[in-house]
Amino acid sequence: MQDYHWNNFTKRVTIKAPIFSLYAAWATKTGLESWFLREAIITKADGSLREPDELFEAGDSFEWRWHGYDETTVDRGRIMSVNGKDELSFSFSGKNVLTVNFQIESGEIVCSIEQQMQQDTEAEKRYFYIECALGWTFYLTNLKSVFEGGNDLRNKNVTIQKLINA
Fold first, then answer.
1. Mean pLDDT by 10 residues, the chain (166 residues)
2. Most-buried pick from 62, 86, 87, 142 (CB within 10 A)?
3. For the chain, what is the domain count?
4. Would 3 be classed as within a structural domain?
């Protein structure tokens, strides 16, 4: 049996929406809060806050909070690269890097994410691989649902815990 590595994974989903609309869903406060987060606070490199519909720039930092979790659950990271149209990457949860891109394949828009785990130990990599792969599967499904049917599948009740849709 071949040794398994926990260094990265890729998830892909087709979504019927214009590429720039999908890009803005990942690259603006308003976009992220429409399908992914309860709150996204985006800070420019100069320390000022980004406007809700203003596209992120490389060097921005963020704080994220989710529906279904209280105020103590916060993730912080940095926008690492953006191209303003179909690709961006950001760090989160310490040593994870996610690259998001959009492309046309066989006439359909494909949203593809690749997560790199850069933790120091295999146990940490394995934890983030498993937990994040599960989480991104749900959130990509929710992104598709929001764009194609308008249904937001997230749990927004903080009193109900241990759900896959929180």
1. 79 98 98 98 98 98 93 95 98 94 98 96 94 96 97 93 87
2. 62
3. 1
4. no
